[in-house]
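Here is one record:
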Amino acid sequence: MPIVYLHGVAVRDQNVAPTIAALLAKYVAPVFSADHHASALSDRIFSAYWGNHAVEFAWNHASLPAPQATNGELKDPLPALAVRFLKERRNQAASESTETSVAELSADQLSYVLTAALKDVQFGSVASPTSDEEQTSNYADRIIALDKAVRILMPKKGESQITSELLGQIARNAADLLPRGAPFDLSQVMTRVGRSLRSGDGNNAQFGTRIVMHWRPEINAILTQFFGDIFVYLSRRGGADSPGPIVTDFLDVLVQATSAYPQEPLVVLSHSMGGQIVYDCVTYYIPQLEKYSKLKVDFWVATGSQVSLFEEMKLFKTSDDSIRAPSKVEVPRRHLGYWYNAWDPNDLLSYTAEPIFSGVDDEKFDSNLPIHIAHFGYLTSPAFYSRLAEKVRASIAG
């Protein structure tokens, strides 16, 4: 079963994220090819990369204003504010030290939170999991071990009290589940999880504002690249007579995947803006372009996408301005089988599709992750891939 991963905006790495590939090979690929060796399952994972066709800045972000000192303040008054902030955190930590019950979460939610904390500890808050291949391989093993430990100690359904004792037991079990010769101290992960789940984090609004303003150039650079990639796709995707390279590169990977495994169903995993590209392709470009007209995506999972938002704004090639509420859009099924849309209420860039489209399996994933990392939580959480495998299995059986 070939699986094609299509990324979202602001990605400039030509290799499929090793963590995503490892999780797809472990959880999803065996649904159709359970008797194959692990290496054969990994061969079924394909990456469709379009970052090389995305936005470029002719003046290298020279239009972004530099930080300015105001009201006679120092340009960087952060040290004094940081000292005050850390004192508040120290006082709060002392008051929290006697607490044992941290929060009530389901097994899936705790798995999400542990995955995010492990990423933060192992790579740092700004590094990418793709920055080092060996680190990423270890990361995949560790998140899988953590997820297994959670499943062993928590019920499959419902929420449980997450205590310091439970977190400690999960850490010990996960360490035992890791491959021999791959020890890892999970105490920092559990400490971070415990603190993040407690209510009232003592955050200082003024300190946070100063931090944001101090890093405005970096934040602006990220945001402009984010929106720039969207603008580039919309303006350069082209028509049926001359499709743009983002479209054709993705379709060529689909051809490559189906040619390698012609008798197996084709699965596509898209993230964020990748969902809009997939939708345009299955509804417009594939039917219109003879070279790709035999393609069919048997199962498409859109994670953290804005497909329904784009349809509300009538931005797709096949958008019909006359179709509005309370009607729904009927998605043509000649080139698309099952459509599964996963969204997270903490992910501010994900949207529900069911109110807009008919025939879509629209499901909420409550990761309980902070809003600044929830958008990427699907891609590195074993809980999500386990659920995806269930969906694919049911689709094939049906």
Observations:
- The CA atoms of residues 97 and 195 lie 10 Å apart.
- The chain is about 45% helix and 10% strand.
- Strands lie at 3-6, 45-48, 101-105, 160-163, 267-271, 297-303, 329-330, 336-343, 357-358, 361-364.
- The first helix runs from residue 18 to 28.
